[in-house]
Design goal:
With about 325 residues, this protein is of the alpha/beta class. It contains ten helices and twelve strands. It starts with 14 loop residues before the first strand and ends with a helix. About 45% of the residues are buried. Bound molecules: S-adenosylmethionine.
């Protein structure tokens, strides 16, 4: 019988995001700086076997869903091998991946064959010029080819396309995203920009809220809200004529901490209980020191117990965490 992992606020933790690298092949303006970036030293990055050990420990404690992320997970050599190792762990119900899609054309087949069923592909703009402006790389065609390759894989499950919404940029993309969502089998989701970038210059004014985007979309094609599933990060709307869906992840304007069931493992082996945690728990040290499974389980349970009640974005005195998004794993 598996155990139940709960935090000190009574929330059951079942969802783990595993970052496999802090490296990324894009330089999105809200996330990374364009110049020299201090990447984590290689020796600090968990090896596949170490990741597997931590995931096994967490699954024994009650985790059911695992999402691989980064940095950009597909720049980690032989990611499908890690996916296979995780997919075969007894007790995992869902293995998914978040990627920017640049390497998807190369890897789609191997990833699906390895046991990944659900995919989130980040795509901030459909216009080549705006995509290049946001990501600092002229690569929207590659992402679209990756999506196409992925959607043609036999056995692939749900594919979501995620756009970070930035005021002054995303408004111009809405009509194209509406057409895209209505003509493809992908749920297009808009994510409010959060204060997690390397520039540390986020202001609330940068956030184009989900509410504002719903109104813009509704004016183009009427949409109706679908009841929210427990623990869901997104509010989902379907087009009233039944053709396609859009989702809104609104961590800033409509936080969903109340039933948060997520924790994160960083590429260098820290357990984080909130995107905005100021404290994190090192698992790599105990792991490399040969901690017994029971000791690792105790460290994890204690850390989870201290999970933050909520993030404080927008509150007076909010401080951005030391780690930026690319080093946490989104
Ligand atoms: N590289 C992969 C990708 O692009 O999907 C996985 C990691 S990335 C950190 C995961 C998601 O977080 C991407 O959709 C990215 O755009 C988003 N993201 C990065 N910084 C963000 C921020 N400050 N606020 C909101 N979303 C952010």
């Amino acid at each position: 019988m598996s155990e139940v992992l709960v935090d000190g606020h009574g929330r059951r933790i079942t969802d783990l995001r595993v970052s496999v690298t802090d490296l990324c092949n894009l330089r999105c303006r809200y996330c990374l700086t364009p110049g020299d970036i201090e990447w984590l030293p290689r020796g600090q990055i968990l090896r596949f076997e170490e990741i597997e050990t931590v995931v096994r420990a967490l699954v024994r404690l009650g985790v059911r869903d695992v999402r691989l992320t980064g940095g950009e997970p597909l720049v980690r050599k032989d990611l499908p091998a890690l996916a296979r190792m995780i997919a075969r762990i007894d007790g995992i119900e869902d293995l998914s991946l978040t990627t920017n899609g640049l390497l998807l054309e190369r890897d789609a087949e191997a990833l699906v064959a390895a046991g990944i069923r659900r995919f989130n592909v980040s795509l901030d703009a459909l216009s080549p010029a705006r995509f290049a402006e946001v990501t600092r790389r002229d690569a929207v065609g590659r992402v679209l080819r990756g999506l196409d390759a992925l959607s043609r894989q036999p056995g692939v499950g749900e594919i979501k396309v995620n756009a970070v919404a930035t005021r002054g940029v995303t408004e111009h993309e809405i009509p194209a995203f509406v057409r895209f969502a209505r003509s493809n089998p992908f749920q297009v989701r808009f994510i409010e920009q959060m204060p997690l970038g390397a520039h540390r210059d986020w202001t609330a004014a940068d956030v184009l809220t989900g509410g504002e985007i719903v109104a813009m979309i509704h004016a183009i094609h009427p949409v109706e809200e679908v009841p929210r599933e427990a623990h869901a990060t997104a509010r989902v709307y379907r087009f009233a004529d039944g053709l396609g869906e859009v989702g809104f992840v609104n961590p800033v304007s409509q936080p969903f901490c109340d039933d948060c069931n997520r924790i994160r493992l960083t590429a260098d082996g820290a357990l984080r209980t909130c995107l905005f945690s100021h404290d994190e728990t090192d698992l790599r040290g105990p792991l490399r020191d040969g901690a017994a499974p029971d000791d690792l389980a105790r460290i994890i349970r204690d850390a989870v117990w201290r999970k933050e009640l909520k993030h404080r974005v927008g509150d007076e005195g909010f401080r951005q965490p030391e780690r930026t998004m690319s080093r946490i794993g989104g």
